[in-house]
Design goal:
With about 110 residues, the protein is α+β, with helices and mostly antiparallel strands. Helices cover about 20% and strands about 20% of the residues. It has two helices and five strands. A hairpin with a 3-residue loop joins β1 and β2. The structure holds guanosine-5'-monophosphate and zinc ion. The site of zinc ion has 6 residues, from α1.
Length: about 110
């Protein structure tokens, strides 16, 4: 856990969240300000700040994040209708939380990526 990291505090249970899934490597929870009818965040349990601070040892973990997001999309009935996985990185993306996270959004037409 990294001090003063919002998502580390959520993973630790120090800040409440609506948990969707957890295993030894990742946790998923509802986004507090959803941009789509389905909006879940998948985060690594162990703090990783950015993709650029990850290395080859994290490849399986990052792939696992995507598969967990896909399974959540299936559970929520949007796997067939379609959904989007987004990883924001850096200021131009609007990244607000410096703990790697994957957004799963779906449940409406998402339109082109801005
Ligand atoms: P970013 O812009 O960094 O890619 O996404 C951060 C996401 O975290 C945003 O979609 C925002 O709504 C969500 N978020 C920020 N603070 C909280 C919080 O305290 N709890 C939850 N569940 N989501 C949060
Ligand atoms: Zn963290």
């Amino acid at each position: 856990m990294t001090a003063d990291c919002l998502f580390c505090k959520i993973v630790a249970g120090d800040i409440p969240s609506t948990e969707v899934y957890r295993d030894d490597r990742v946790m998923a929870f509802e986004d507090i300000s959803p941009s789509a009818p389905q909006h879940v965040l998948v985060v690594p349990v162990a703090h990783i700040t950015f993709l650029r601070t990850a290395d080859e040892s994290h490849e399986s973990l990052i792939g696992h994040m995507a598969l967990v997001a896909d399974r959540i999309a299936a559970e929520r009935g949007v796997q067939s209708s379609g959904f989007r996985l987004t990883i924001n990185q850096g200021p131009d993306s609007g990244q607000a939380v410096d703990h790697l996270h994957l957004h799963m959004t779906g449940g409406r037409k998402l339109g082109p990526i801005a």
